[in-house]
Amino acid sequence: MSRHVPIRMCVACRRRRPKGELLRILLTPEGFVLDPSGKRPGRGAYVCPDNPECWKEKKLRRFAGAKAKALAEALAAHLGGMHGQGQDLPAG
């Protein structure tokens, strides 16, 4: 019997993938927080960690609005070499 695999959608490219393949981002009052475990409380969005196109400001506006530029810069800095997952991102 196969186990249920939750499917989520990237807010940037709208591609549907298994939850484990995507990176969850939370928008908190302090700023953006990466949640690779997907278990932190709060409303989040998902982005493809392996597709730099998904980290562009224009694509992130659906989720972050006016803070999209700060989020895009933070994602590029943190995911550029896949380092720093699970750390807080600078407030936008």
TrEMBL record:
Positions of the YlxR domain: 8-72
Pfam families the record matches: YlxR (PF04296)
Gene3D superfamilies associated with the record: YlxR-like
InterPro entries: YlxR, YlxR-like_sf, YlxR_dom
Top-rank lineage group of the source organism: Bacteria
Entry protein name: YlxR family protein
